[in-house]
Amino acid sequence: MYTLLSGLYKYMFQKDEYCILILGLDNAGKTTFLEQSKTRFNRNYKGMNLSKITTTVGLNIGTVDVGKARLMFWDLGGQEELQSLWDKYYAECHGVIYVIDSTDEERLSESKQAFEKVVSSESLDGVPILVLANKQDVETCLSIPDIKTAFSDCTCKIGRRDCLTQACSALTGKGVREGIEWMVKCVVRNVHRPPRQRDIT
Ligand code: G3D
């Protein structure tokens, strides 16, 4: 009887946990996205004032529950000297959210180079990537086709994995729910696929 009840309890309440990295250059909007996600998905979460968030230095961690999935977000600092630390987290991660500042045309090629390194990493083979074209609330921002064109060199490096480019405003919340729900669908589906190369000992 105990086993039956504990099995039922686990089925009803236990969450499957997935680690998601939030990457991108400094000032792209990673921390704002994390706060917006927590506010949208976690009932009773009293988020901070989004317009008061300043750039990530180091690491922010946050958890979001979507149905039976618990996403554990690691928002890593995007400054050049911190980018060298990103790959230390790759082995543990199930998904990557790469945030681009769509208003910063000057740094678009820098962002593309950082993205290229991410998708070229063997440790991330097969890991789904959600590319967020952030700050779409700003009238003069680059459009999704503009950004896709600028990142087109990287397409062949993406390989066989789920990848979506999503228009988003971390500030207003537009596109945030759609992006996260897409990520959940991908990571849940991936655990039922054969293990990735790096998982084979
Ligand atoms: P980071 O964590 O990637 O470094 P932050 O970036 O989340 O700290 O955001 C950097 C700046 O961009 C912040 O402004 C923040 O308010 C702004 N920002 C983030 N997302 C959006 C968005 O969707 N739209 C607009 N318009 N601005 C956004 P400040 O002025 O504090 O530097």
UniProtKB/TrEMBL annotation:
UniProt-annotated binding residues for Mg(2+): 31, 56
Role summary: Trans-Golgi-associated GTPase that regulates protein sorting. Controls the targeting of ARL1 and its effector to the trans-Golgi. Required for the lipidation of chylomicrons in the intestine and required for VLDL lipidation in the liver.
Organism: Cavia porcellus (Guinea pig)
Protein name: ADP-ribosylation factor-related protein 1
GO biological process terms, semicolon-separated: gastrulation; Golgi to plasma membrane protein transport; intracellular protein transport; protein localization to Golgi apparatus; retrograde transport, endosome to Golgi
A cellular component annotation (GO) from this entry: membrane
Binding site for GTP: 24-31, 78, 134-137
Keywords on record: Acetylation, Golgi apparatus, GTP-binding, Magnesium, Metal-binding, Nucleotide-binding
